Amino acid sequence: MSLLEIKNVSHSFDYPLFDNINFSLSEQETMAITGISGSGKSTLMHVCSTLLKPNKGIVKIFDKDIYNLADKQLINIRRQDIGIIFQTHYLFRGFTANENIELSTLMTKNVINDELIEKLKIKKVINQKVGELSGGQQQRVSIARVLAKKPKIIFADEPTGNLDPTTANEVINILFEYISEVKGALLLVTHDDKLASKCKYKKNLSVNGLIGG
Ligand SMILES: Nc1ncnc2c1ncn2[C@@H]1O[C@H](COP(=O)(O)OP(=O)(O)OP(=O)(O)O)[C@@H](O)[C@H]1O
Ligand SMILES: [Mg+2]
User: Fold this and answer.
1) Residue 116 lies in domain
2) Considering only CA atoms, which residue is closest to atom 4 of ligand 1?
C-alpha cells in the first residue's frame, strides 16, 4: 500500500506553479523535491501534507482522498499520522524546548524519547526558552517535536537550512534512520543536490511550473 499518493496535481497562485504531478511513496521510500527559490516547493509540500487543497488533482494518505474527508478526519490524520517540519519553524517562543516537544506528545500520548534528544544534541538546552536558542538549535527542537509524536509520513521543508554541513548531515541521517525504523515515508524539500541524491526519488520543479526531473 502506498502511504502517500499524488495524482494529476496542479496548482497556481498568480502564475502556474506545477502541473500534473504524479508520484507515490510506499513504506521506507524517500523523495526529494528540488528547484530554485519561488518554484513552488513549499507549496507542493503544503498540498501533500493536508494544508492546502490544490486547484486540481487528488492527494491520498493511507489510501484516503484527504481533501474529500470530513474536517475531523483530516485533523486526525494531521495530528496522528503525519509530521511536518516547516521551513520557518513555528515554536512557542515563551516556552522551553522541552515544553514545545511535550506539546506535540500530549496529543498523541507518546513519551519523549531521551535518545532522540541526545542524538539531536539539544539535551543541554532542553530547559531553555526557545527565544534564547540559536536558529539551528530551534530547528533541531522543531525536528524533535515532530519525531516525538511518531508519525508515519514526514514532510520536511529545508530541515537543515540553518545548520552547518556536519550538523546538517547528522540531522538528515536521523530523519532517514527514523523512516527506516518506523517503516515510514519522507518527502524532503531541499535545494542541496547532494542531500537530494540520498533520496530514492527526486522531483525538480522549474520556474515556469513544468516538471524537469
Ligand atoms: N498563499 C499564497 N498566496 C499567493 N501566492 C503564494 C502563496 N504561497 C506561495 N505563493 C507564491 O508561490 C510561489 C512559490 O512559493 P513557494 O513558497 O512554494 O516557493 P519555494 O520553491 O518553496 O521557494 P523557497 O526556495 O524560497 O522556499 C511564490 O511566487 C510565492 O510568492
Ligand atoms: Mg520554500
Assistant:
1) 2-205
2) 13
